[in-house]
Amino acid sequence: xxxxxxxxxxxxxxxxxxxxxxxxxxxxxxxxxxxxxxxxxxxxxxxxxxxxxxxxxxxxxxxxxxxxxxxxxxxxxxxxxxxxxxxxxxxxxxxxxxxxxxxxxxxxxxxxxxxxxxxxxxxxxxxxxxxxxxxxxxxxxxxxxxxxxxxxxxxxxxxxxxxxxxxxxxxxxxxxxxxxxxxxxxxxxxxxxxxxxxxxxxxxxxxxxxxxxxxxxxxxxxxxxxxxxxxxxxxxxxxxxxxxxxxxxxxxxxxxxxxxxxxxxxxxxxxxxxxxxxxxxxxxxxxxxxxxxxxxxxxxxxxxxxxxxxxxxxxxxxxxxxxxxxxxxxxxxxxxxxxxxxxxxxxxxxxxxxxxxxxxxxxxxxxxxxxxxxxxxxxxxxxxxxxxxxxxxxxxxxxxxxxxxxxxxxxxxxxxxxxxxxxxxxxxxxxxxxxxxxxxxxxxxxxxxxxxxxxxxxxxxxxxxxxxxxxxxxxxxxxxxxxxxxxxxxxxxxxxxxxxxxxxxxxxxxxxxxxxxxxxxxxxxxxxxxxxxxxxxxxxxxxx
Length: 544
Description:
Layout: E1 2-13, E2 16-21, E3 25-33, E4 36-46, H1 60-63, E5 70-77, E6 91-107, E7 115-126, H2 128-133, E8 139-145, H3 147-154, E9 161-164, E10 172-178, H4 187-197, E11 201-205, E12 210-214, E13 224-225, E14 231-237, E15 245-250, E16 257-260, E17 271-276, H5 281-293, E18 301-306, E19 319-321, E20 339-350, E21 363-376, E22 394-401, E23 415-416, E24 423-429, E25 435-440, E26 459-464, E27 469-474, E28 490-497, E29 500-509, E30 512-521, E31 524-531, E32 534-541
Parallel strand pairs: 9-12, 13-19, 15-17
Antiparallel strand pairs: 1-2, 1-5, 1-21, 3-4, 3-20, 4-7, 5-6, 6-7, 8-10, 11-12, 14-18, 15-16, 18-21, 19-20, 20-21, 22-24, 22-26, 23-24, 24-25, 26-27, 28-29, 29-30, 30-31, 31-32
């Protein structure tokens, strides 16, 4: 289609806002989604004042700077064939600049060097979260916090978010993530992964440049009447129907479980399993509830191709009424509710690409292609981008905490969760300001009939998932337990302190095995020593 468009373009670079007349725009491309935008815009600037002309390019000096750039773009029809106001059809979006280019066009003037009289600028941009969070790869540990607080601590000053979801505002004991650039999972991926995993909704308000995270889609607002005369084609699309039944499996040996979630459209014998290992029955119930809440039957979508610039708002989030009141046939596939726009593609190229036509005006004529994708207003499925899921676990060093005895005592301790009755270690993580996390009070090595709990200040390696942690191994020996290499000994050192303990040592002396058991309590000692041809039992109280 060919349309005259009224364009408002503002480009902020170098800390200065430059307003570019719409008549200077020579092309743009927009891909607007429910969750964000990606686009590009091209425009010309004349710079002939030094040659007797009337135009000066004030943009160039700021444009070449490395400062963060911002784009704001508004597009309205230059005229309408209906009673609808042009403001009602406005398409508006904004973002941060990713890439910039400028092509300088030189002209040869008589008796002078070639002069640059015209520059053609081009910028590509995306919404702020994509631009910044996709470059953010933090490693962070938070305790007794909400994921909302975590996002707020990392979002930066260019991103505005609102929240309406109890899941994201509920305090949890641990939130951990380690986002490795080599894996390519960024903070953007983490947030979207969290929202998708827990059945939330993440949306971008293109007009306001703000985001929201909610538990359900916004169904407020009145639907605008979509006119048949706006359309070139309308196609109904029926997405692939999931044919699996979700299952939740718990491998905890004392209470194994297999919970099936119904799907009336599932094929026989086709499952999607979630495997848990938890002694907490509520964890299984919560996961079953989560899987049951996931929409399993996608509703019909509608793809629109426009023959003229839409006369009503078609930005993502807009509601449209496709009915006979707009001139549509009653023979169309029946629909009893409005549709919501979740995708808009807009491509435009100026009919005259030269530098002179429409320069400085607010409007210009373009060849335009415009398509949109719609969903039923009641569609519960969230529209989210493809992401690289974050990897877990991450591994941190920690030290075991024990409140038993004096600070210098080598003791062990555990806490019993008052809600689950599960025993847990407490481990402090020095890297993150000695924050304390909990891990299952389980034997981390050795046989089950050997009861050797981890002791106070024991250095351990902890595997952390997003919301839980597990001690996977010890990473040093107790100082008193090490023995000299020459004797090739093995040593079991038990007790609270170096003066209150029991030591069991087996080593070699003159290539002959020797076993020594030594009990120490301050000045009192008991020694049992077994060696070649000799057994010693000695009880004494040392002086001093």
